[in-house]
Specification:
Elements (H helix, E strand, L loop, with lengths): L1 H16 L4 E4 H10 L12 E4 L3 H6 L6 E4 L16 E7 L9 H11 E12 L16 H8 L4 E8 L4 H6 L6 E3 L5 H7 L8 E7 L4
Parallel strand pairs: 2-3, 2-4, 4-5
Antiparallel strand pairs: 1-7, 5-8, 6-8
Helix pairs in contact: 2-7
Length: about 210
């Protein structure tokens, strides 16, 4: 029954969005928009470590040049096989919750391999169903991310996005559908609404001190 409802909902959803440009799905739509404020025009020339499929987030920040790409289990955030101060930025999109070990160590490693003045960016989640089981270990508030990063760098932003109505998209099987860039579309309304006490996804942007 639920599968049939999801199929009908998906047809209706896509019909409403026909011919409209799309953005990412609901858990990334507003988050990427918010993070795009930090886009740098110098990104194409910078050396970036992209962790576990984080290329889309790299582009949000303007890092469009060659990247060092790495994924678990070949490389773990708990013990990055790179020298100190190797990169201009470390970008990890929805990775930290899957670290099988101490997330404080993962954050410390991120700062270790970035150069002074470089960026460390982690997006992760708080109010999110378990996923990629059994490798789903952690949930983070913005305050928790800030706590992990502060010993190592200057926090530029620690924040989150979410709204209870995302549950409706989840129940209808539409959580991973792209969000139409049309203000009147119901999914767009859900994706751009936010309640501070209900963060589904969270993130931190921090900079390693120059001195």
């Amino acid at each position: 029954m639920r599968r049939a409802v999801s199929s009908v909902a998906r047809v209706f959803y896509r019909a409403l969005a026909l011919g409209r440009p799309n953005g990412p799905h609901v858990t990334r739509f507003t988050m990427y928009d918010r993070l795009s404020r930090f886009t740098t025009s110098e990104g194409v020339n910078q050396e970036v470590l992209s962790i576990s499929g984080s290329d889309d987030l790299c582009e949000v920040f303007g890092f469009t040049g060659e990247k060092t790409k790495t994924s678990y289990p070949d490389v773990t955030l708990l013990n990055l096989p790179y020298k100190d101060n190797s990169f201009d930025a470390v970008i990890a999109d929805q990775v930290l919750e899957h670290v099988e070990g101490d997330p404080a160590l993962a954050m410390a490693e991120s700062f270790r391999v970035v150069r002074p003045g470089g960026l460390v960016v982690h997006t992760t989640c708080l109010i999110m169903p378990m996923h990629m089981q059994p490798h789903d270990y952690w949930r983070f508030t913005p305050h928790g991310l800030k706590y992990l990063a502060q010993p190592h760098g200057n926090v530029i932003e620690a924040d989150g996005w979410g709204h209870p109505s995302i549950v409706l998209l989840d129940l209808l099987g539409l959580r991973h559908e792209p969000i139409p860039k049309a203000w009147w579309h119901p999914a767009h309304m859900i994706a751009t609404a936010s309640r501070q006490s209900w963060p589904v996804v969270t993130w931190i942007v921090a900079r390693k001190p120059v001195t």
